Amino acid sequence: MAEMAEPVAIQTNNTAYLNSYWFSGIEPMSDAQMRARVLELKSYGIKYQLADIGVLLSSGDSRNGTLPADGYSELGRWIKVSRETDPSQKIVAAVNDGKRTIWLDGGKIGNPSFGNAVYNGNLRTLADKLVNRGVPYGGALYMADGIQLDIEGFMRDDPVLKATAQSVRSVLDDAAVYSIACPYDPALWSDSYIGEMAGIFNMLNPMMYDQLGWGSPVYSPETYRQFWETTIVRYAHAIVKSSRPGTRLNPTMPAYEKKTADDGTVYHDPAIENILYAAQGLKRARDRLSLDRAGDPRLNPNGVHGAGIFWWSKFIMRGPDPHDPDAHDYAQDRSWWMEEWMRQP
Description:
Blueprint: E1 14-18, H1 21-24, H2 31-43, E2 46-55, H3 75-85, E3 90-97, E4 101-104, E5 107-110, H4 117-133, E6 135-137, E7 140-142, E8 146-151, H5 159-169, E9 177-182, H6 191-198, E10 203-206, H7 221-240, E11 248-249, E12 252-254, E13 259-260, E14 266-268, H8 275-292, E15 308-310, H9 312-315, H10 331-342
Helix pairs in contact: 2-3, 4-5, 6-7, 7-8, 8-10
């Protein structure tokens, strides 16, 4: 368990991506261990727990868009213990689908199984169960506070994704947290499309990592800071021009080991993509947005609602990461999170 942070915090509307093992029972936990994890989340200003409960099935049959129940067999108990420990934290069930696109004849196309009537119906039923009807534990039903969609790979201003998002929205009320993991690239999501999605969701979580390699303009600490500044300003302005200008913007900061592709390209390096440089870029964006509020007072006075951490299980790891070739130590990330983000006015 990581060292407990001092209880001095200003920025506390934050998100954390939690390990799927916590909710499937692969990593068994007692109630006391669950309580300790919830208190640790609280100590780092986490309000929204993004609970990874598995990968949606992509198939050509009636199971298309369903989620294997063993991925969230411990979710009901987690919700019970979490609410007893810190009722201010929101449990958001995060569901994943990495097969929005497929390869066919050497090219990438939209997966025909994604977003069809069967898929959307099953996903809508799942959202209704998780948020409205509840999952069982100990003879009672426990409801999540919302649902997050993480649908990859992205397609240009994707109308099928938008239709799927609207389908799920139809079973959620405005009190539910409805969020989505978003791409940074304007070639994938234009400003107008961000506005359309902000009108459906009430939280957008841009994934601000894995930006290195293959000719990317991000290759140094300074270019990573610029990437953060530009992207957050773009998203913030697109949101306020939407039908839901109060949609929450929670960009995600990276805390995990170096990643190298099969061709040898390093696409994530914690020496460049880390919480320190992300927070510095976010500070620049917030400063710009503060000036921009003179022209559009609907912009969030804080610039963003909060920030996120991907992955939480790495962020809280003690000692050098045995899976990182450079033996990265996340103690520095925890310090940066507190000093460069959480305690910033």
